[in-house]
């Protein structure tokens, strides 16, 4: 058998559903935090409009993703996490007031329940959490740092629950904790063991 060599990679056009999904994502205000390049979507209908999306168990006041200062701070933090550069934060803490701190950024964490991003960083020998919305300004420093642990190596624990499935308790519990890793085992017709990892 002979094979025909294809020298140039074939580009498949995006389907109507794929374009609609991209349009939906492009309408999310969080997308401005990342340098995402979309194809021309001006004449594309989104699969879902933002007003069609209902979030269960989410606090009403999340981060302001439309703020130019917030977007700039997020991009600076994000770049420092990827490049392992130290950061100088001008941070306004509820408990400690205004602080200027030099930190080693480990990773960015998103809380879907609170609808906010946090920076997890090392200062000295301790790991701290900084709400990105409370960073007044930040600068990436030229000095690099070694990452001696990955995010998945940070302390993790679990809780085991025995759930009696009355009034759709299991469904409501799994929906409320949908963003957590979990295991569900059926013990009998109306009793379940749920393990939640966090």
Question: Could you walk me through the main structural features you see in this protein, from its secondary elements to its overall organization?
Answer:
With 198 residues, the protein is α+β, with helices and mostly antiparallel strands. Strands 4-3-2-1-5 form a 5-stranded antiparallel β-sheet, covered by helices on one side. Strands 6-8-7 form a 3-stranded antiparallel β-sheet, with no helix packed on it. The longest helix is centred in the middle third of the chain and has 16 residues. The radius of gyration is 22 Å and the shape is extended. 12% of the residues are buried. The mean pLDDT is 87.
Quick gist of this model?
The protein is an alpha+beta fold and 198 residues long. Helix content is 18%, strand content 35%. The chain has helices spanning 16-26, 68-83, 169-176; strands at residues 85-93, 97-111, 116-123, 126-131, 135-144, 158-164, 181-188, 191-197.
Widest sheet, order of strands: 4-3-2-1-5
Number of strands: 8
Major sheet summary line: 5 strands, antiparallel
Order of helices and strands: HHEEEEEEHEE
| Principal-axes shape call | extended
What is the helix tally? 3
Which residues form runs of ≥5 with pLDDT under 50? none
Binned strand content:
35-45%
Portion in helices: 10-25%
> Average pLDDT across residues?
87
Estimated structural class? alpha+beta
Indicate the radius of gyration in whole angstroms.
22 Å
